[in-house]
Amino acid sequence: MMRNVAVLMGGWSAEREVSLVSGAAVANGLKAGGYSVTSIDVQRDMGALLTRLYPKPDAVFNALHGRYGEDGNVQGLLNILDIPYTHSGLLASALAMDKPAAKSLFAAAGILVAAHVIASRDDLASGPVMEAPYVIKPLNEGSSVGVTIIGEGERYSADGESWPYGEKVMVERFIAGRELTVAVMGDKALAVTEITTQRGFYDYDAKYAEGGSQPRLPADIPAPVEAEAMRISALAHKELGCRGVSRADIRFDGKDLYILEVNTQPGMTPTSLVPEQAAHAGIPFPELVGWMVENAACD
């Protein structure tokens, strides 16, 4: 058993506050499961992080969200240190965080994805690059950070103040329909949740603000649609090379299922979807986080 666990949380991405909440919940869950836990608020000072990781723990629970914690950077550091860590390895983490790369893999595996173009900020300033409605997304952020829906007759100017996510922008066809999400644990999809929100779409506030969304578990969808959502989620997890737990976000237009993205570091906050699906499958929270620790690995 991995007795001594360091929980990495915080970081300096746009998802810092959510990561702190996830990390605190994970630490409590691990303590309830009998683990000795050291919680580490990760800052840019790598020397300080290395000091906190000595003597080496048996495993690291990576509760970081967003850039640097979810995109392969901290995974590479932990590989060098030879400390087993939860969730996916360096390559799978980097691929999943890079939305165009992930969509290419999904499409090659026969999974439907929304049509998109990669535009510059200057392209957007010159006029629409796709027929509305469409969605503006950063190429490599999580938790719907920076995501904006552009409707008929609307314009979007990705200037430096409103768009701090780099020079390139993903412009993706908006798929009207229902929002579904599926947690994958190991190689098995757990359940399908439908998410409704009064905010127009499942944005950052809908994900994390109390009352921002209304999840329905299990989703009220036909059995063949449920089975297909679970199949493509497990397939996407496999194609990316994920391990541990991931969560796929899907749009259902009434006929077809489109994968939007796979989250390799899904939230573990009190309102998070993966713990809810695990509980629905008969896996209480301490058992879930304990399983993730016991399946921690390096690349």
* Morphology call: globular
**Fraction of residues in helices?**
25-40%
Element order: H for helix, E for strand:
EHEHEHHHEHEEEEEHEHEEHH
The CATH class designation of the largest domain is Alpha Beta
Q: Assign the CATH topology of the largest domain.
A: D-amino Acid Aminotransferase, Chain A, domain 1
Going by helix content, strand content and strand pairing, the class is: alpha+beta
Number of domains: 3
Question: Nearest-angstrom radius of gyration?
Answer: 19 Å
* Number of DSSP helical runs: 10
The end-to-end distance, rounded to whole angstroms, is 20 Å
Number of strands: 12
Biggest sheet layout: 5 strands, antiparallel
What is the CATH architecture assignment of the largest domain?
A: 2-Layer Sandwich
Mean pLDDT: 91
Biggest sheet, spatial arrangement of strands:
10-9-8-11-12
What fraction of the residues are assigned to beta strands by DSSP?
15-25%
Q: Ranges with pLDDT <50 over ≥5 residues?
A: none
- Spell out the CATH superfamily of the largest domain: ATP-grasp fold, B domain
